[in-house]
Every structure is written in structure tokens, then in C-alpha cells.
Specification:
387 residues; alpha+beta; Cytochrome p450; 5-stranded mixed beta sheet; 3-stranded antiparallel beta sheet; 15 helices; 12 strands; globular
């Protein structure tokens, strides 16, 4: 029996967090899949292997409550009832009503509002010098998702804080302070959603929350769905925008003729979500390696999106790259339900930024969030002049 390839790549090492792509390339050249003894899971480095992990039904999202379970119950409750943490048939049951709500036209109906919000935010900044993350990329998606769900604008700052506190738990070995912050945020966030859901049952409105409370979902499942939509819609959009913008500005690039095509390259080039884990529900083969029942395997999306077997000049940011079969939104049953919203929002916000400030440039060194799983920038100082 052939030996299983192994790796000792430390995903939390500062040099890997700063720029994981050379490390991914070195690993990919040796093996598409490798066992990491320290992490007790397989890591995947090729586009084909990552795609296989996400499509294979025998590799599932199996939620296990974080310990100590009693202390972390507010956090666990949100994830235990999320579609993303379940497999069919439970995943199908949880996803169907959210998908129906999205299909009612809420997303496209928001496009004029996204343009309006982008213009309002840009009108409030000093174009000669501002933080494009804090003053533009962060508030925009929160305002959009809040409007989609029907959350009052007075809660927007709370939503940003709660979302950021919860997603910090996804990094390796969160500190006690991070754990406490996530539990507090999960408690407060769930409390607000329960209040709003009760209001919608009494007085329906034209929003996604009203659509959800009228379905077969339980109260806990409605809360989990809303929190997932806010966290995913907020964090992913902010980080895709920041990562892609920094990549372009460092290279003196601007969006191509079709901004939507450039957005796809932003999604590919520096992935906002770097890792997604699965657990084998039975023995399954991935790129010549057998993942045994109960073993975990991590799909490294950033590695897949720089695979030279799929992308010509993968380390080059090509604003006109087409086709662009990146895996930023996943594939298979867990394909991101919010992808149409994210794509629309990014295209409108990127176009508005360059139309308003056509000579946009970095005005200082961007500050990284220094996290691996959710990769992004905390601050991106920019400047230019009004069009």
C-alpha cells in the first residue's frame, strides 16, 4: 500500500498568513493532497482536489458543538441550525426556504439602492485621503444586507460588531477574549432577530425576514439563517473588495471594460475565504489518497484558485480574465446562496468607486487583519481626486 503524502505547513505562521500563495505552490508541486499530523486532517492544494472535496457527497459538513458546550451554547445554537453546517436532507430543508426568498427578486430589486448607498458613502469621504475599508467597503454590505433582511438602520453598527466578533471564532485557537466576545455577540444578535421575527409575524413587510418567518423553519432556524446571511454577506464582501482593490492598486490596475469580469478576478486572485473543512462519512478517494470515515479534509480555496493547471499565469491579476472557473463561492450543494447578491454588490461598488475617483491610489501601507481562514485588510488608506 503506497504511503500517504504528508505536509507540515503551518497555516498560522506569520509568513503564511502574510502571503500563503508561494507556500501553496510549493505544496501543490509535491502533492495535490497531503496529511497534516499536527492538524489531524488532510489539506488539498490543487483545483481538482478542492473541487472534488466540495462536490463529494461522502465528504460532509458535520457540526460538533464547541466546548465547553454550556458556555458556548449561544454560539453553538447559531451554527447547529445553519444550512452550511448540515448535509442533505437536513441541509435541503434549511436551504429551500432561504433560496425561495432569494428567488422572489429581492436581490435585483436592491441594485438601485446599492448604487444610491455607494454614492452616499463616497459623498461623505475626503477623496484626497480616506480609509476605503472602514468608510466604504465595510458599511456598504451591512447596509445592503440589513435592508434585504428588514433590519432597521439603527442596528447597522451593532450588526458590524456582532458579525466581526462571531467570525473571529473561525480562526485556529481563538483566545478567551475572542470566545467571550463571540458568545456575547451571538446572544445579542439572536435576541434582536427574535424580536424582529416576532414583529414580522404580527406585521408582515416586504423583506426577506418576513419571507422566512412564513416558512416551515423553527425560530432557532430563522435566527441561524439570518445570522449566516449577515455574517457571510458582510465579511466576504468586505474582504473580497479589500483584497482585490489592494491587488489592483499595487499593480497600477483599474477595472476592465466589464466590471463584472474584474470582480470575478478579485474573487479568484486573493480569496477572502481560504479554508473550508469536510468530514468523511465513509471511506472516499481524493486525488489518489483515501480519506477514511471520520477523518477531516480541508479544501484550501486560495490554493485552488492559483492552480496553473487551470489558470494561465495564476499569479497575475488579469482584469479581463475569462473564463475564470474559480472556487471562491464553492461548488456542489454548499454553493454560496448569496453569490448573486455578492456579485451585484461588488460590481456596483467597484464601478462607483472608480467613477468617483478615477485616479485612485494607495496612500499608505494597508493593514492586514492577520488572519488566515478569513483573509482581508483592516485598513486600506487611499486617495485621489473627484471625477
Amino acid at each position: 500500500m503506497p504511503s500517504v503524502p504528508t505536509t507540515s505547513l503551518d497555516l498560522s505562521a506569520p509568513e503564511v498568513v502574510a502571503d500563503p500563495y508561494p507556500f501553496f505552490a510549493a505544496e501543490r508541486a509535491r502533492h495535490p493532497v497531503a496529511w497534516h499530523e499536527g492538524q489531524q486532517r488532510f489539506l488539498t492544494f490543487s483545483h481538482a482536489a478542492v473541487s472534488r472535496v466540495q462536490r463529494e457527497r461522502s465528504l460532509g459538513r458535520i457540526w460538533v458543538d464547541r466546548e465547553p458546550a454550556a458556555q458556548l451554547e449561544p454560539f453553538n445554537l447559531l451554527h447547529r441550525n445553519q444550512m452550511m453546517e448540515n448535509e442533505p436532507p437536513e441541509h435541503t430543508r434549511l436551504r429551500r426556504p432561504v433560496a425561495r426568498a432569494f428567488s422572489r427578486g429581492h436581490v435585483e430589486r436592491l441594485r438601485p439602492r446599492v448604487r444610491s448607498l455607494a454614492a452616499e458613502l463616497l459623498a461623505q469621504v475626503d477623496l484626497a485621503g480616506f480609509d476605503v475599508v472602514e468608510q466604504y467597503a465595510e458599511p456598504l454590505p451591512v447596509l445592503v444586507i440589513a435592508e434585504l433582511l428588514g433590519v432597521p438602520g439603527s442596528h447597522v453598527h451593532d450588526l458590524r460588531d456582532w458579525s466581526q466578533a462571531i467570525v473571529r471564532m473561525y480562526e485556529a485557537d481563538p483566545s478567551p477574549a475572542v470566545v467571550a466576545g463571540a458568545v456575547s455577540a451571538a446572544t445579542d444578535f439572536a435576541g434582536l432577530v427574535r424580536e424582529l421575527a416576532a414583529e414580522r409575524r404580527r406585521t408582515p413587510a416586504d423583506d426577506l425576514l418576513t419571507d422566512l418567518v412564513g416558512t416551515e423553519l423553527t425560530d432557532d432556524e430563522v435566527v441561524a439563517a439570518v445570522v449566516l446571511l449577515l455574517n457571510a454577506g458582510h465579511e466576504a464582501s468586505v474582504n473580497v473588495f479589500g483584497n482585490g482593490l489592494v491587488a489592483m492598486l499595487r499593480r497600477g490596475l483599474r477595472p476592465g471594460a466589464d466590471v463584472a469580469v474584474t470582480v470575478e478576478e478579485m474573487l479568484r486572485f486573493d480569496s477572502a475565504l481560504q479554508l473550508f473543512e469536510r468530514t468523511a462519512t465513509e471511506d472516499v478517494e481524493v486525488a489518489g489518497v483515501v480519506v477514511e470515515q471520520g477523518q477531516r479534509i480541508a479544501a484550501l480555496l486560495g490554493a485552488a484558485n492559483r492552480d496553473p493547471a487551470v489558470f494561465t499565469a495564476p499569479d497575475t491579476f488579469d482584469v479581463d480574465r475569462d473564463p475564470n472557473p474559480h472556487l471562491a463561492f464553492g461548488v456542489g450543494v454548499h454553493f454560496c446562496l448569496g453569490a448573486p447578491l455578492a456579485r451585484m454588490e461588488l460590481a456596483e461598488s467597484v464601478a462607483a468607486l472608480w467613477q468617483t475617483c478615477p485616479d485612485l491610489a494607495l496612500a499608505g501601507e494597508p493593514q492586514s487583519r492577520d488572519t488566515f481562514v478569513l483573509r482581508g485588510f483592516r485598513k486600506v488608506p487611499v486617495g485621489g481626486t473627484h471625477a
